[in-house]
Specification:
This protein is mostly helical. It folds into three domains: 2-95, no CATH class; 102-336, no CATH class; 343-486, no CATH class. It is 74% helix and 0% strand. It has helices at 2-10, 12-22, 32-50, 55-68, 70-73, 77-80, 87-95, 102-120, 122-134, 138-152, 159-171, 174-177, 191-208, 214-227, 233-258, 268-280, 285-303, 310-323, 329-333, 336-357, 360-371, 377-390, 398-414, 421-434, 445-451, 457-486.
Length: 487
Amino acid sequence: MADEKKARWIVFVPLAVTLAIALCPTPAGLERHAWYFFALFAGIIAELILESFPFAATGLMGSAIVAVLAPWVLFGPNDFANPKFNAADAAIKWMLTGWSSTTVWLVFSAFTFALGYEKSGLGRRIALILVKLMGRKTLLLGYAVMLSDALIAPFTSSNTARSGGIIFPIVRNLPELYESKPHDPSSRKIGGYVMWVAFATTGVTSSMFLTALAPNLLCVEIIKKTAKIDISWIDWFLAAAPFGIVMLLLLPLLVYWIYPPEIKEGEEVPKWAAAQLQEMGPVSRQEIMLAMVVFLAILFWIFGAAFINATTVALAAVTLMMLLKIVTWNDVAGNKTAWNTVVLLAFLVSLAEGLSSTGFIHWVDASLASHMQGFSPIVTMYVLVAIYFFCHYMFASTTPHTTAMMPVMLAVGMSVPGMPIKVFALLLSMTHGIMGVITPYATGPAPIYYGAGYIPGKDFWRLGLIFGVLFISALLFISAPIMLATN
């Protein structure tokens, strides 16, 4: 009874958050509709944390409320000054913006890849091999998962393709071998540990290599145009390696301490895995065909980025999987987890875009510039990088974050006398991978691992904050001093 009463009250918390912010005076320099939009956005984030409604339903309801209230929260006087402006049409176009996001459909493809691994048996076979070789100790299995991502990261510019399309479909098969099930208390046996190691690893590898995350390349272009500084692959790696190598080596162990698995070790499971492999027999025709499809996709993701989009590759691979009958359309249509995740991410992308289109992000940047006067350049650099990192709570992807805030933050840094611009620019750029860990929507792989059901929502937010703080601290207090000493 007490739980039911608590559940009823929780529903009103997001409303209270929205009203509390909306009723505060609009900050100077910000238009009223942008402040109201931020109030709604904060309420939606509060609801995502509390989970009184399913994630996808929250995204849909939040976007619908904004679209209905668009004349007051989405559009300002400048919009209505245009005689051809139609608020109703503009509102629905805004609401559906996220559905055209390439990240959304890459996430969809990643779930379909996982389905193919499951149906063909290839995912189970690879998982059994890993467990047979390294499954005696859970910690060792964590290191195997970490190394899998680290080895292919330099060659895969989409972390969603890498982690969601390659690592996740394999890792997803591991927990079940230990009778660790999603959306169940047994998820803590080993599933939560393995999933978080895989997800957090891709954050570190995405920051460690210039070519491991698409926005990294965008940052290099912005820095070249704004600050007239060229950054090579080697420049980036030498700057990121001190914190990146330390974090990769410690990550499975840190997760082992902070979010410990219930199963620590055991001789029986590797023996059982060996027996299961024998029972599976030789590799099937379906497994071989899927392996070929995945191999082709990886080749295009690595070598074809200049002429074919990663999402195009993924959707073409999904099409090929259906033509080869590895999966059917009924399998895809019935993948409830995939569609829930797609709906959530599509609407969150729209909501995050609204923060930029209403001018809220620009106002945040301008406010930062005005409040950083008088501090030493090094202190200013550390504070700006930390703020840039935690501002990612307002974004559903790293690309819009880069586009909206990177040029302005660079301009703020360049206005500070004595600022080590190259170090500052690199530090800003290297946050884009690690910031993906902080929320269940922060980067493409996030909703995939959240949607798997092995890490409850509150744990996901808590772990995101803990590891977000660890990662940004490592960047600022391991890599930054070395960069300052050598530049």
